[in-house]
Each structure stands twice: as C-alpha cells, then as structure tokens.
Amino acid sequence: MAVTMNDVARAAGVSLKTVSNVLNDYEFIRPATKQRVQDAIAELGYEANLTARSLRSGKTSMLGLVLSDLSAPYYAELASKLMKAAARRGYRVIVEQSDAGAAAELGALQGTFRQLTDGLLFTPLVADADAIAARAGRKPLVMLGEHVMDPRFDLVTMKNGEAAAALTRHLLAGGRRRIAVIGARPDESAGSAGLRLNGYRKALEDAGIAFDAGLVAPAAWRRDAGAAAVAGLLEAGVEFDAVFGLNDVLALGALHELLIRGVKVPGEVAVAGFDDIDEARFASPSLTTVSPGMEEIAERSVGLLLDRIGARETAAQGVHVAAGFELKIRESAP
User: Fold this and answer.
1) 3-state secondary structure of 186
2) CB-CB neighbours of 216 under 10 Å
3) Distance (Å, whole) CA 147 – CA 126
4) What's this model's pTM, rounded to 2 decimal places?
5) Could you tell me the residue range of the domain that residue 73 belongs to?
6) Do 96 and 40 form a contact (C-beta atoms < 8 A)?
7) Has residue 244 been placed in a domain?
8) CA 148: distance to chain centroid?
C-alpha cells in the first residue's frame, strides 16, 4: 500500500498541514520540525503526488527550455548554467531540442511540454515573431538570443556588435590588417552572425580600413565548416593575417586547418573566436575569444522569467536585457 501524507504526519508527530508546508517549502517552519518531517519522509519512502500538488497550486515548479541543438558546446554550457540558476531558486528545467525547425519551435509553445512548465526560456532560430505571438498563450516566456528582437517579448541577449568590434580592435592593435571572418555573409545584418559582422565592419571603419567582402567566408557554425572555410581562402590565394570565427567552434576548426597546413599561429595568422566555451582554454594554442556573459544571461533570464511567473500577468511591453562581455586574450591572438 502506498505511503500517504497522513502516514508521514503520524510518524513525525505533526499535523497534516505541517507535512504539507514542508513539502511546499513554506519558510516559517521550525528547523527541528522540518527535520522530523523530512526524516519521516525518508524512512517511509513517501513520494509526493506532484500532479495533485500542481493542480492545487497551479504551479509545477518546472521551467521549459527550448534550444536548437544540445550537441553545440555553447548551448550545452548555457543549458547547464540555466539549470543551476533555476535550481538555486527551487525550480527544475526540462529541455526540448528543436533542431532549428519551425514546427518544433512552435510546437514547444503548446501541448504537453508547455503544460508541464510554469514558464519558458525560448531560443528560436526559424519561427518569426508573429507566429510565436499567436501561439505563446498566457504563461510567461523569455526569449534568448537575437533571432526575435520584438518589443512584445522579454529578451535576454548579448552585446554581439560591441563585443565583435572590441575583438576586431584587439586584432588591429596587434598589427593585423587582413582579418578574415568565418561564418557570415557580406550582406547579412540580422541575427548573431549579422550583428557580429556589423561590429567587425564598424571597427574597420573606425580604423580607416576598407571592408573587403572577399575576406568574409560563409560557413555553418561547426568545426568542419570552419576548417573548410579557411581551406577555401588559402586555396583561392586570399591573403589574410588573422581569422575571426564568429563562434568558437568555427575558430577551432580554422585553427586546426591552419596548423595542419603548416601556418604558424599566431606568428603568421592570429585566430580568435566568440563564446568562450570551455574548450577554448584548452586548445593548443589556447583561443582568444569573447566571453559573452553566459553566467549573467542565465541569471537574468531565469530571474526575469520567475518575476513574470510570480506576477501572474503578461507585461504590456517586454524587457530587453543585454549581458556584458569580456575579451579573453590567449595564445592564438595575444
């Protein structure tokens, strides 16, 4: 027979209400009383009926997180930090992987996944703002990233343009003048890639250096694509003395390709990335990169979402927050 709350109450010598207060983390309980209840729960093996509790309270104490690809190091590290930020506030996070598909992104806004959570941390890469707004429902939602920067939604992002400009200025200060950019297109202006390319162009303009579209190599944001992009530049005879990968995995792929071709880094070509994933510190040479404030992004986004959950209402206009950044100067571009 299943252990009930009444069994726990009798074993602990307290009322049913006290057991309920302990299970719901009510703060005004004497430590000794709370310990007796917790000991009884452990001894009897009581398991709370979370479904019933959520029906009574209207809360699940769970947050949803939608990311495109958990195998991407940046997203994996961000997910870990978001989970820790939520746990410190008494929440758990369940994750949905969208594979950058519009149907999956929009599907996460409705159905079982949405019902299981009190609010959503959402990183769309394909779905547009109107489609999201039409399906967002009443539960709070906080956007992450740059794909949808719409005043209807709360958003926590990073200073892509400013950070890319700062990194480009660092390369210029090191005497680099032919800085290849991996992972963007010359005509791109939106999203992470476009904003970072804009920052690069602004730093060149400020330094009086003409933008050269021939130094911009389109590439998917993967290691193999970064390596292939650099190989293409070398084989086409494009001269460059630095590589700016618009994320770290692109830069690491480029670094690998340069080294196996005998190009000295940083002696002949400096290499820099963006994101400061853990692997960047342990590359050989270690990777100069932008640390985009991942801890702050996690703290601010979870905090904002829980503020919205607590208010139980949707704001007329979203709050937009941009985390700070830091250059991490390492061996690949000192």
Assistant:
1) coil
2) 23
3) 8
4) 0.81
5) 62-158+294-324
6) no
7) yes
8) 14
